[in-house]
Every structure is written in structure tokens, then in C-alpha cells.
Design a protein that fits this description.
328 residues, alpha+beta, Four Helix Bundle (Hemerythrin (Met), subunit A), 13 helices, 5 strands, 10% strand
Length: 328
């Protein structure tokens, strides 16, 4: 009995019946019909694991895993020789981020590894809606929640470390938050020890057909439009939520430009750095202002922070001037 849920792929080439007997060992395709469509069976070591349809004009392949054989079909998709036929820029980019995250899981006690892990995760989240498009609603909701939880945990771990470093740089005595950080890391490791990264890769594999229809250059153009809208929505430096939307839009645009292999814009790099610094400073400012009593060092730090925040805002206004000239 085969599964009703098929895996649809766009291939870079047509089927080569004889060559495909050995090209993807231990898998092979056995064709029963070749006109007008290719109809056959996917075998793994002479055991049928899926029904196959191939549309030669569209170069579109449909795999229908037999009951209990989905994972073996995904193993075929993971073969480099098959990926060369079915890959696309979006799926390849997503897989690279997942592999990056996997390589860093056991190094997250180090700040640089945590930073690189978070960057890879943010890049993946930027295209996550496309990757989940072929999953069921329940799968989408479940995986989205898990990814969001990982993002929040890593964000809190990173923000706490940066706040402590920033406070120390302003001459404020920093109190350790080791116990809270350890608890967050414990929760994070438990999440990462689950199947979440494997589930992400599964989502990439089953979305190959959808992602093959995406044009990275058009995705970048759309993200640029979103950034322009976000900039125009900022009416005051006190509109923290609007400023955060600009910060997130800049990151997303840079990631999609990277995906589209568009040369990075120094202005966007400078804007992201400016907003990142501003974000860290206002977090520390909020932390100090929430205290009932401030030491003399903390009062001096608040004055210095406000001065530096004002400098970042002046830099922000200069960097975003060109966007105000864009039409919405």
C-alpha cells in the first residue's frame, strides 16, 4: 500500500533508463512504461519502496513511498548524485545552514560558536515558510514552534552575555547570572538533542519541488521592498517596535541577497551593525532604568549610554536617508 502523500521534484535532466540502473546505488529505478509518461518502481536492494511517475516534458518526478518506506525515499534524496539532479538554490542554502548548526551543537558554550549557530538559524528562519509549504498544517505548527523556541533561547543566552560585557565596558559591576544561563543552555541542549534538525532537513527534502519554483533574485527584490516599508514606518526614534522591524528586515534582506549570490551592499552591512549596537544599548539602558536604586557608576553609565544611543540614531538617520527617497 502506497502513501497518498507524494514527493514532487523538478530535475535538471531527463530520465536515462539504463544509466539510472546504477547511478544511485543502492537505489535503482525500474520502468514499466516509458510513453507518454515514465511509470515504474523505485527499488532499494531489489525491494520496492516507492511508485514513480516521471513527466519528461516538465522534467517532473513524483515519488509515492510505499507504507513505511518514506525514510528510504528521503535517503535517496540525500545522495549527492541524486541531489545534483534535484537540487535548487533555496534547498541547498537551507541544507547548508542545517549542516552548519549540526557542526556547532557541541560547541555552544563558546561565544563565537553560539553566534555562528544563531546566524545559521536566522538564515534558515528567513526561508522557513517556503520550506514548510509541503508539510501538513500540524507539522508546520509543531516545527515552527520548536524553531522559535530555539531562537528565543539562543537569543536570551546571547543577550545576557552581551549585556554583561557592555555593562562592564561602562564601568558597572556585573553580577553573575550563571545559574539562569546554565538553565537556558540545559533546555537548549535538550531541544537540540531531539529530532528538530532532522525534521528541518525532512522539510527541506519534501519541499524540493516548491523551492525549485522560487527565484532568489525576486525574493531579494521583495525583501528590499519590505525594508523600504519598514523604514518609512518609523516615525520616531522612540518607536522601538518599528526600529526592531527595520533591524530584522535588514538581516533578512542580507541573507536573501546571499542566497541569490548578489554582492553584499556595504550600506546594508553598516546599517545592520548600527542597529545591532543600538539594540544592545537600549537593552542595557532598560535594565538599568528598571532598577529602583542606582549606584553612582550606574548613573554615569546611563548618561554615557544615552550619548552613545543618540550617536547610533544619528548614524541610522544618515544610513536610511536613501530609503526615504524610494516610493512605497
Amino acid at each position: 500500500m502506497r502513501s497518498d502523500a507524494g514527493i514532487t521534484l523538478l530535475l535538471r535532466t531527463g530520465v536515462d533508463g539504463l544509466a539510472w540502473e546504477t547511478a544511485f546505488e543502492p537505489f535503482r529505478f525500474m520502468w514499466g512504461e516509458t510513453e507518454p509518461l515514465y511509470r515504474g518502481t523505485l527499488l532499494q536492494e531489489n525491494r520496492a519502496i516507492a511508485d514513480v511517475l516521471f513527466h519528461p516534458v516538465e522534467k517532473r518526478m513524483e515519488l509515492y513511498p510505499l507504507e513505511g518506506q518514506l525514510q528510504l525515499c528521503l535517503d535517496l534524496l540525500a545522495l549527492p548524485s541524486f541531489q545534483a539532479l534535484a537540487s535548487n538554490p533555496v534547498s541547498t542554502y537551507a541544507t547548508n545552514q542545517i549542516r552548519k548548526m549540526e557542526s556547532l551543537i557541541h560547541q555552544l558554550d563558546h561565544y563565537e560558536a553560539m553566534h555562528d549557530f544563531r546566524v545559521a538559524l536566522r538564515k534558515l528562519r528567513t526561508i522557513l515558510p517556503h520550506l514548510l509549504s509541503s508539510c501538513s498544517d500540524s507539522q508546520q505548527e509543531k516545527l515552527s514552534k520548536r524553531v522559535k523556541k530555539i531562537a528565543r533561547l539562543t537569543g536570551k543566552i546571547r543577550d545576557t552575555e552581551v549585556q554583561q560585557q557592555l555593562l562592564a565596558s561602562y564601568g558597572v559591576v556585573v553580577h553573575s547570572s550563571g545559574a539562569r544561563q546554565d538553565m537556558r543552555k540545559h533546555t537548549l541542549y535538550a531541544l537540540l538533542d531531539s529530532t528538530v534538525l532532522a525534521d528541518m532537513q525532512h522539510a527541506v527534502d519534501v519541499s524540493l519541488y516548491h523551492c525549485a519554483s522560487l527565484d532568489p533574485a525576486r525574493m531579494a527584490a521583495k525583501r528590499y521592498g519590505s525594508l523600504v516599508k519598514a523604514v518609512h514606518a518609523v516615525r520616531s526614534a522612540r518607536d522601538i517596535k518599528a526600529m526592531h522591524r527595520v533591524r530584522k528586515s535588514v538581516k533578512a534582506l542580507r541573507y536573501v541577497r546571499e542566497l541569490a549570490q548578489i554582492e553584499q551592499d556595504p550600506q546594508l552591512v553598516a546599517l545592520q551593525d548600527c542597529l545591532g549596537s543600538w539594540h544592545d544599548m537600549i537593552m542595557v539602558q532598560d535594565q538599568l532604568q528598571s532598577q529602583k536604586k542606582l549606584s553612582l557608576d550606574e548613573k554615569h553609565a546611563l548618561v554615557a549610554l544615552q550619548r552613545d544611543i543618540d550617536e547610533r540614531l544619528a548614524e541610522y538617520r544618515a544610513l536610511t536617508t536613501p530609503f526615504w527617497e524610494e516610493r512605497l
